[in-house]
Amino acid sequence: MITGRVIRFGVFLGCLGSIGINPAFCQDEPVLSEPVPADFKSALTPTSNEREGLIHLDVSVKDRNGDARTGLSEKEFTLLDDGAPAKILSFRAANEAGAQGDKSERLSEVVLVLDHVNLSDLQFSLVKRETIKYLRRNGGRLACPMSVYVFTIGGLYASAIATTDGNALAEDIARDRFPRSLWQIRQPRAGDINDLNGRRYLLWDKALQTIYTIAIERRDKPGRKLVVWMGFGWPVNLGTQQHGDNDFYSLVELSTRIREARMVICQVTDWPDPQEFNFAYTNYVAGIRSVSELENSGITRPFAHFALQVLAIQSGGLILDSSPDIPQGIERCIQDAGAFYTLSFDPPHTAHVDEYHDLKVDVASSGLSAHTTTGYYNQPVFYDEPRVPEKQITVHELHQMLDAAGQERDGELADELTGLELSERLSSMELADWKSRLRGKRSKTALTALADGSVFFDPPPSEIPADAAPDHEAQVQILKRTVTYLAEVMPRLPDFFATRTTVQFEQRSTENQTWKTAPVDQSLREGATEVATLLYRDSHEQQIVEKRKSSRSIKKNLNFIGVFGPILYSTLRDAMSNGNGLSWSRWERGGQGTEAVFRYNARNQEPSFVVENCCFRNGAMFRARANYHGELAVDAATGAILRLTMESDPGWVVEPDLSPIRLVKITDMMVEFGGIEIGGKKYICPLRSVVVSRTRPVKPLKVWDVDLAVYAPYETLLDDIAFTNYHKFGSEARILPGFEVVPEAKPPAPGSAPPQKGAPPDR
Question: How would residue 195 be classed by pLDDT, with cut points 50, 70 and 90?
Answer without folding.
Answer: low
